[in-house]
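Reader question, answered in our methods column.
A reader sent in the components of a multi-part assembly and asked whether the whole thing could be modeled at once rather than chain by chain. We filled in our standard form and ran it. Here is what they sent:
COMPLEX SIZE: two components
ENTRIES:
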Amino acid sequence: MGRLFNHPLAAPALIALIVIACGFGLGSNFYLRVAALVWISALAAIGLNLLMGFAGQVSLGHAGFFGIGAYAVAVGPNVLPVSPLLALVLGIALAAVIAYLVGRPILKLKGHYLAVATLGFGILVYMVLSNESGLTGGPDGMPVSRATLFGWRLKGVDTWYWITGGVLVVGAWVAVNLVRSPTGRALRALHDSEVAARVVGVDVARYKLVAFVVSAVYTALAGGLLALFNGFITPDVAGFMHSIEFVVMVVLGGMGSIVGSLVGAAILIALPQALSAFQEYEHLALGLILMVFMIFLRKGIVPSLVALAGRGR
Amino acid sequence: MTALSVRDIGISFGGVKAVDSVSFDVEEGSIFSIIGPNGAGKTTLFNLISGVYLPKAGTVSLFGEDVTGVAPNRLVARGLSRTFQNLQIFFRMTVAENVMVGRHLKEARGIVPHLLSLPSVVRQNRDSRTEAIRLLDRIGLAGRADDLAANLPYGELKRLEIARALATEPKILLLDEPAAGCNPKETEDIERLIEAIAADGVTVVLVEHDMRLVMRISNRLHVLDYGKTLASGTAEDVRTNPEVIKAYLGTHGAEEAARARR
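And here is the structure of the entire assembly that came back:
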């Protein structure tokens, strides 16, 4: 059992099973739609987890990268002769470049100071998106043109369910590869002791930047997928609350756990739907559930449950 | 050949001269110890040599090349690594992974192959692990390779730091109190390990409080007090130096000792 958990393909395989099971098990379009939103958020959460859970660097502005990915898809085809899918690729590249330029100065900061600097970056992106009404439609948002792949229009909830689920599985596989590579070991090392990582040869500044750029790429990809899936986008996707939601997904599901990021995303996306029966008490109930989870599973859901299962053996 | 040469090095913190104009040379392949009372500036000196602190004055050279102010991760490529007095272990990683991080500069570091887990990366991971297990075997921890480092007792973690530093294949190894907090048996293990490392041709610079250990294994010693050089020489030179006796026993203690001898 322990050996199975430790296999490099365990997390992506488990996530693939979940995606396939839900794809055939969830009957209605409503549930498939919620599930696709979970896969998209989980992709962003995995990206943020690489930065927070593995490299130990906090970001309260990752929705900024999500917004860059989403708006690149929405705005790109209007201003450049590109298809929405090419615009997605360009948006991801843009997010990577911006992450590199922003990360270089601010990753010198630590802890709370880094948190505030990333927060500022997120707010900046949000302000630009909501104020440049000529391009982005301002606070009211803008429509996104349909993507086509080899002449085939990508539409319908089930199509997007399988696209987002597939991308999530690949994203989880890539993340696991990274974590288990020399780069991943360098990131986890600098998380525990920067000075010890340096004296065995790790260029700490470079690896923090690597983690920041990779996580920005994941998040921008997720943002672009949401824009294509939704067909409409507002600046709120880049908002502060959205950044906080990503952090909650990572911490709740478990820092340093790829499957945990999916669990965290599922709870934050699906639970409000389930709790809508409580009507005005919905947010109250959600808040209480989050607190109870963190009090009793303080290392996050997945790592805590794995530890409990290990003790039971 | 001189492996490490320190010339007139100094640094102050808030007006206090933590290390003041210290100079010494370490012969290649020898064991060189830096001793002195608590707060004498031994660890600060290590931080200056290993690039963790930038010296305010003076120079550091490795094998004749000036490396003053070179970042720690670049010094590793030039053959210098170190351990820490207060444990700096990667607690969330396994014992083997801790040592594998020490292979960092020996591994290909392109990001894209890592993301895709190409066969070359898989092969390299296996090689790094093999080397890590070999080093763990040397410090008697091969059986705990896949345990989380956080679950190891203190004495084993001190040895794990040495194994991690050895994984960088250093030519000079700085050991900051490797036997601190260890029981007599563990101290004996560390002593044998240090001698074996030196026998392999690695130059060892040691900060240590266990005088029995230091006097037994050091080729030369350097004594610091209040950041300044107090004495330098062989174990016998240092043991009989009146200044050293005074610093260790205190002025009053030295007078007492002198009176007792009369």
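What stands out: Chain A touches chain B through 29 residues (CB under 8 Å). DSSP finds 15 helices and four strands in chain A.
Send us your own complexes using the same form.
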